[in-house]
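# step 3/5: fold
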Amino acid sequence: MNQTLEWFQTHHEAEARGGPPSDVQFNVFEVLRIAEEVEHRAARFFLQAAERFTDQGRRNIYYNLAAWRTRHERAWGHIRRKYSERTGEFGTFDPGNYFLSNPQVMASLTCLVTHPRSRGMPAGKETAEQIVRDAIRRARGVAIFYQGLKGFVRDPESRRMIDNMVCEEERHIRLLFRSLERVQPERVNAVPAGVAHLAEAVSYS
């Protein structure tokens, strides 16, 4: 088992038994840093996935998914910088605690961290609908990850920030479902018109 994942599961179980572990407590700055890294990895994943396809229509779906993640990476970064300006709070440097000093490594636990050659990447034969439904599945995984992250914070402000992140993922999921509904089922996977319409719909998510 991945050592980081094993560590996460152990600490999540400890949190369930009676509160967050004492050795790892992320503040708002660190929570936002984790979210930035999640979005960065997600955008990279979708860009790499796009290269598996030869037609521009399905590539555009992935490009639009990547663009959404990039916008959110920038948004979380902006909020983090404004928060630091307002509070003077920054990340923690603790030579004895790798996770506190490098909170972004927590992002490696999400379902969006996939090596280009692994089985988690698309084969390049998926339909447009399958691409969007996979994006929905991955967004749900990110929301679950954020919920688990609550076990690593104590202060109410950090929990509220995580709630905002979960809400954004849930909003993204709703918009992706809506993008499928905008295109008539029989046209979703038609080439090229249906795929183009779906790519355009995804761009509004």
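# step 4/5: annotate
Residues 56-87 form the longest helix (32 residues).
# step 5/5: archive (pending)
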